Amino acid sequence: MALTQDLSSENSARINFNRLLLLRGIAIAGWSTALLVAMFGIDLQVPVAPVMTTLFLWVGLTLASLKWLAGIQVSDRLFLAQLLIDVICLTVLLYFTGGSTNPFTMLFILPLTVAAAVLSGRYTVLIAAITITCYTLLLFFYIPLPYTKDIEHGTHGPHVMGMWSGFVMSASLIAVFVVKMGETLRLRDKKLAEAQEKSLKDEHLVALGTLAAGAAHELGTPLSTMAIVAKELEQELAATPGHAEKLAIIRTQIDRCKNTLANLAASAGQIRAESGQGLALDKYLVSIIEEWRRLRPVAPPLTHWQGSTPAPMIVAERTLTQAIINILNNAADASDQPVEIAGTWQPRLLNLEISDRGKGVAPMISGKLGASIVSTKAHGLGLGLFLSYATLERFGGSVALHQREGGGTCTRLTLPLDKLLTSA
């Protein structure tokens, strides 16, 4: 999880860093255009040499950043240093072009806005203090520009139009770049939250796997002992039909427990085919229903199958079988009425709906199912649904619960078949 967080943070920081350099390039282009307009459009006397030197230096620092910082991790300090370069270059340009009387002084708000969107509060306060200091110094120290008489007559001269241009540029750049930077950060936070949720779920699964392995080891010896004793009692009480029949049932149940433990050991950590071969999807679904009915002799379910013919050949994966059986058991526990099962498939996708007529699942609980171990039954542990969700997600699938009209719950399983196809 830490690696995922580091990669996500670095990617978003690099994207925002590149956007900052692009923003700087646009600012340089804007200054260059304003300089040309001032010199040739309105015949304004501008100290060309220092202004051009500053612009060339700004361009050089930008190109150097693109070349030399391409493979370096973008930290907050590096981002801060780049913003300080922008503030210093902007201050120098304003010093030679009228100081605080220059309408482009409002461009000071750009590095401050970027800092507020990307950097920590401490660095943002530092940028704010520096920009305020620079702006304040420009009130008293600057080289004035000889404006035309239009300003004196109160008409919309170059100063007023320059203020308008500066505002338009600042507003446009803030609207585009800062919003994009914020979206990048929100996307990173979303990915981190998803990674954290997946990590917690994986921790649950690892813990359950460890418990299952320990339980399988601990239950093996008692089950073997019980099987031996049951067999001896069956031989001793063979003359008593009633006792012999009950002991046979006990032995059958013990054998089921032993088979379950064997399947648990055989299925751990790998995808395996039953009997070593693939199985048509429609036959696989029917086999799941038959196995479930042997385990749960409830009312026959109402089934409906529809899909491409012939059905795709898949690996009859045991953990997937158990996941579907867990959901069938929940549906059977919810109501005495027959469970309704509808399956539709395409060559690479299976949609399975398991519906019951129970009381339904409260929205507060349905949102937690699969994300954590939550039970909808009074004496349930909540492991079945949690493991079913995790199994479906392992194969790229998903589980969704919906309230049915007339009461009950519809559990919809969506399962891509790419990882199960024998010919994939």
Walkthrough of the structure:
There is one protein chain. With 424 residues, the chain is of the alpha+beta class. It folds into three domains: 2-198, no CATH class; 204-267; 274-416, Heat Shock Protein 90. Helix content is 63%, strand content 9%. The protein contains twelve helices and seven strands. The strands form two sheets. The protein has a five-stranded mixed β-sheet. It has a two-stranded antiparallel ribbon with strand order 1-3. A hairpin with a 5-residue loop joins strand 6 (398-403) and strand 7. It is elongated and about 120 Å long. The two termini are 30 Å apart. Residues 1-7, 148-156 and 269-276 have low confidence and may be disordered.
Write the layout of secondary structure elements.
Elements: H1 2-41, H2 48-68, H3 76-96, H4 109-118, H5 121-138, H6 149-152, H7 158-236, H8 241-267, E1 279-280, H9 281-295, E2 302-307, E3 313-314, H10 318-334, E4 340-346, E5 349-355, H11 363-366, H12 383-394, E6 398-403, E7 409-416
Parallel strand pairs: 2-4
Antiparallel strand pairs: 1-3, 4-5, 5-7, 6-7
Helix pairs in contact: 1-2, 1-7, 2-3, 3-4, 3-5, 4-5, 4-7, 7-8, 10-12
Please summarize the sheet with the most strands.
5 strands, mixed
Strand fraction:
5-15%
Number-wise, the strands total 7
Give the total of domains.
3
Helix content: 55-70%
Order of helices and strands: HHHHHHHHEHEEHEEHHEE
